[in-house]
Amino acid sequence: MTTDLADNVETTQETDDGASTSIGLAIADEPVLLPSTPSQPVPSLPTRPANYSASDNTAGSVPSSTSTSTRPIDNHYIDGPASSRNSRINSSSNLDSKKDKPAILEGDEKGMSRTDSRYSRLNRSLLLCAIAVALSSINYGWVIGSVNIPALVIEECSDGPETWTSGFPSCIPMSSIMWGLVVGLTPLGAWAGSMFSGVVADRFGRKRILIVNNAFFVAGALLSSTSTSIVQLGVGRFVSGIGCGVASNLVSTYNSEAATVRSRGFLGGFQQLMILVGLFLSQVVSIGLSAAPLWRVLFSISAGLAIFQTLVLFFVPESPKFLAKKGRMEESQAALQWLRTGLDISLEFEDLVAVLDTRAANAAISPPTLWQVLTGKTEVDLRHLVFCVLFLMMSQQWSGAKGVMFYSTEILSSTFHLTTSEKQHIPSIAQLLTLGIGAIGAVAVIVGMNILDKAGRRTVLIVSSLSTSICAALIVIGSKLDLGPLVATAMYLFNLVFQSGAGFIPYLSASELLPYSVLGSISGLAASVNCLTLFIVSFTFPILDKALGSYLFTPFIATNFITFLFGVFLMPEAKGKPVSQVVAEYQGPIHLVSAVSPRCRKKTPPLPVV
């Protein structure tokens, strides 16, 4: 029943010219990448960290590890004494694939059966933690959505002439180009935040940095709500944007590290859902707070959300993976048990430690640089998968969806030819329609999260992007024919079909397509591409509005159709696959793919997983 580890840690793969190349280590569904050097020796799996302490195989504890024999069971390598290992083999095979029921371990010391946490679904403790962490995403949505409805009041003084009360102006008049710059400074700040958030979080922890990050939300809210000039408002938006960038990176990181296999799809889209919830809530509140000077109160609410989350996070455990990586095994085990209340975490925790052991060995052998990954100079060529991740993060922002979120009130006011007095009436028809657009986006993400694991990522992206392109064409037609109801309906459908697929799939792409050894560097690059694209769209959208008029959404017909073509010809399918299988199927330079990659058929089966 046992197999020597050396038989499982290295494999070869036949190339098109008949040569064989070493693939490298593979552990816990992730191939370990090494720089491409000749005759590279494959390291053996290191021993446990010195401060790792094993205990009895009871619920919530780590099984003892007195044997080095290893055997792949259900995509995991499990080591330990023969009697203990055989018990685990039996228990791990209890997963009923037809009925999709979790495996049940043999009785614990109290004679009670416990559920193996590796096969558990979303439980209450995990959900509460995800919500607490995602309060940063709600704040993100609040920041980007709060400028939509009161935009005309602030930039055009549509609520009346500029007046000063207690040292604060009722509005801050500016041109549409300058307003676009002020709005665009938020994604520019998000780009800055995303650049450093991963590094500091790896050093100090996800939870701690999320707490510190709330200072940016508080400072940005105070600057924006007390602004007396364009410069101060712009600086406030930029500082809030830093908080948004840190949040967008760390919320997804924490949730992916805390998620079980079966909750990965749901928690993967959870961040986008919470962003849309925050955006919708900001628009609901904006109806009553968009008049001068109440828009200042609207901006200040972000600070209250940040302070509330800071208090809540003190009751949330740190990421178990981060704690284990730092050698704090007892804390890591306690945190994992907290997230898996009522479940047996012994095998899951053992797998976690084994993964970190091998990552440490890989790090000691000069891990590939970003340039080596981008140029394919690694043992496993990831160029196609890296391109897909970067493209998806860019396409999310060039779709035009954020333009709808930022400027729908102005677009609809122009579409329905609202007079100055009608704009001053709050809520106007444009503001009410904007409120509905935000609500339908949140509903769409929930729908998409439920169909994603059934239909597959690739299929959902194809349908979503093509439908978004069609809706953009309907907006152009309605605008050209001066049919306000058609434009409003098309904008609703635009947000519905986009948010149900193409809106949140990019957030899943990096963790599902790339091995952990390159995840940090590529995720940072992808976040930068995402934020910079959003800045360009936010800044140029009002300029395009003035230049193109009724044809404003014409560029987005093209960009969304390009995303559709990408889904048809280039998008990998990661549904139900470990990372190692995805890498084995789609490795190589950028190439055309099909539902089942033809490159995979010509080569050996997927890499062995641990």
Number of helices: 25
Query: How would a crystallographer describe the biggest sheet?
Result: 2 strands, antiparallel
Beginning-to-end CA distance, first to last residue = 16 Å
Helix content: 55-70%
- Strand order, biggest sheet? 1-2
Residues in β-strands, percent: under 5%
The tally of strands reads 10
Shape: globular
> In angstroms, what is the radius of gyration?
26 Å
Poorly predicted regions: 1-32, 37-113, 596-610
Query: Averaged pLDDT, please?
Result: 78
**Structural class of the helix and strand makeup?**
mainly alpha
Explain how this protein is built.
The protein is mainly α and 610 residues long. Helices cover 62% and strands 4% of the residues. It has 25 helices and 10 strands. It has helices at 6-9, 82-92, 124-133, 135-145, 151-155, 176-204, 206-225, 230-258, 264-289, 295-313, 320-325, 329-339, 346-363, 370-374, 383-398, 401-415, 420-424, 429-455, 457-480, 484-499, 505-513, 516-548, 554-569, 579-586, 598-601, and strands spanning 12-14, 20-22, 26-27, 30-31, 70-73, 76-79, 115-116, 164-165, 168-169, 343-344. Strands 1-2 form a two-stranded antiparallel sheet. The chain has a two-stranded antiparallel sheet with strand order 3-4. α4 runs antiparallel to α8, α8 packs antiparallel against α9 (264-289) and α16 (401-415) runs parallel beside α22 (516-548). The longest helix has 33 residues, at 516-548. The two termini are 16 Å apart.
